[in-house]
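Re: your question from the hallway

Yes, I did run it. Sequences:
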Amino acid sequence: EVQLVESGGGLVQPGGSLRLSCAASGFTFSSYNMNWVRQTPRRGLEWVSYISSSSSTIYYADSVKGRFTISRDNAKNSLYLQMNSLRDGDTAVYFCTRDWRDWGQGTLVTVSS
Amino acid sequence: EIVLTQSPVTLSLSPGERATLSCRASQSVSSYLAWYQQKPGQAPRLLIYDASNRATGIPARFSGSGFGTDFTLTISSLEPEDFAVYYCQQRSNWPLTFGGGTKVEIK
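Structure:
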């Protein structure tokens, strides 16, 4: 059974940093491209970042470019999102997804003073 | 950035009725359009990919159509578990974008 489990969310002050993790199991992680998506009640679903299976290709949404870094460790079956210079507008539930077919349960990031 | 506009925002229907949801793209996305269902507190669930292909395990009452800029998700006969929010997504161009969603509610 495919499982994706996000962790690392929490409350952080504006300007702060967080590192999200997505632990994958039940499939050959190194064979799949992965994405981070976030969701807020006001803005709905927003694609955040993409990383190819070998990490050779990476894309970011303009709203996070230069502040967020996506990475993966295929040996550890894990996907990461390093989030720096966090803003109020980054407050959201963050999901990781494999191939858009399988999603984690999400982790809540709250940016507030 | 490709903007996806979904209509209507809310669709009030009864179980057994047919639901027709629309997604319009600001420029052509060819057939690179997906549909998702989301229920409160859950992650989105992929229903349709490449405009008309049902994802694994999705019932046949869900169907997708369209090409270019105009797409439709049809639920032929609503089941109680189908009342949810539906999103379209384009995977033609970066950045990938989602529509604002259509809520299918019980009338």
